[in-house]
Design goal:
The structure is a single chain. This protein is 42% helix and 23% strand. By secondary structure, it is of the alpha/beta class. The chain folds into 3 domains: 82 residues, Arc Repressor Mutant, subunit A, CATH 1.10.10; 105 residues, Periplasmic binding protein-like II (D-Maltodextrin-Binding Protein, domain 2), CATH 3.40.190.10; 100 residues, D-Maltodextrin-Binding Protein, domain 2, CATH 3.40.190.290. The strands form 2 sheets. Strands 3, 4, 5, 6, 7, 8, 9, 10, 11 and 12 form a 10-stranded mixed β-sheet that branches.
Length: 301
């Protein structure tokens, strides 16, 4: 798929595409142009700058140090340009346009589909593009303009972010069925002792909160397994490989959820948007719908 801004800054777009794919043919396919055309364009750009920007490596290519330097600046410039393109398109036709929504992986199965089903009933012409990732990546995406809206938690205060709290989600201790604590309704983390711990990859909001809870409980921050997917973490628990601190509702067959009584065992879910520019009509409409409907869905999910 070509860039939405393709043609406005062709040299930068072509270089960034090659940087992402490390392959000229695949970059040309993304941009929707013939491979020889892309190769000639990159050669012209290198000639204008007076330095090589890439070199061949097997069937692919690698950017030189100068190529990497330019590509980094180019990507940031394209983020700003793309934000402008989306705003202009949306202003020209407020009943259509597009919104890029970032959200946590845990919201993919139920919360986001329910939100989009309801939003589409009143805004059938708006295209919502979806990005799932960790909270810090979503926040960075909103700040850079790659994402129009982000639903994540926790969202740290930032002078260039607008936020609205949606819900407070309790965290629970997930243990295997038949575990020594499985018959309990509530538990203190100190009772976990030296049990093997399963967690999310560093940078995920749940991982950050888990680290804080372990410190407060004076337990070592030592994990047996780290995962980028909550379902995978729950599956590891079901397999008897350890216990995990996860949001309520993450349980699956073979696991049991226990309420954690430790202070701070919850995560605040918020919707975030950039405070640096005026939101388009579709983005404002989706933000309003999320604020109205997401709290109920998050409490249920």
């Amino acid at each position: 798929m070509a860039y939405e801004s393709f043609g406005l800054a062709p040299g930068l777009e072509e270089l960034v595409a090659v940087a992402r794919h490390e392959h000229v043919t695949r970059a040309a396919q993304q941009l929707g142009i013939p491979q020889p055309t892309l190769s000639r364009a990159l050669a012209r750009l290198a000639a204008e700058l007076g330095t090589p920007l890439l070199h061949r490596e097997g069937r692919g290519v690698r950017l030189t140090r100068h190529g990497q330097l330019l590509a980094g600046h180019a990507e940031r410039a394209l983020d700003e340009l793309l934000a402008g393109v989306r705003a202009v398109r949306a202003e020209a036709d407020p009943d259509s346009g597009s919104v890029v929504l970032g959200f946590l992986h845990s919201m993919g199965p139920t919360v986001v589909p329910a939100l989009l089903r309801g939003f589409r009933q009143t805004h059938p012409g708006v295209v919502v593009r979806l990005v799932q990732d960790a909270a810090h990546v979503i926040v960075d995406g909103v700040l850079s303009g790659r994402l129009d809206l982000g639903v994540a938690g926790p969202v740290p205060p930032h002078p260039h972010l607008g936020t609205r709290r949606l819900a407070e989600q309790p965290l629970t201790l997930l243990v295997p069925a038949g575990h020594r604590l499985a018959g309990r309704a509530r538990v203190r983390l100190a009772e976990v002792g030296d049990e093997p711990l399963i967690t999310m990859t560093a940078g995920y909001g749940v991982r950050t909160i888990t680290d804080q809870l372990l410190r407060a409980a004076r337990l070592p921050i030592r994990y047996s397994y780290e995962s980028q997917e909550m379902n995978t973490a729950a599956g590891l628990v079901a397999a008897g490989l350890g216990v995990a601190v996860l949001p309520a509702g993450a349980a699956m067959d073979g696991t049991v959820e226990l309420a954690i009584t430790d202070k701070g065992a919850s995560r605040t879910i918020s919707v975030a948007w950039s405070g640096d520019w005026r939101l388009s009509t579709p983005v404002s409409d989706l933000r309003r719908y999320i604020i109205e409907e997401a709290p109920r869905l998050l409490r249920r999910g």
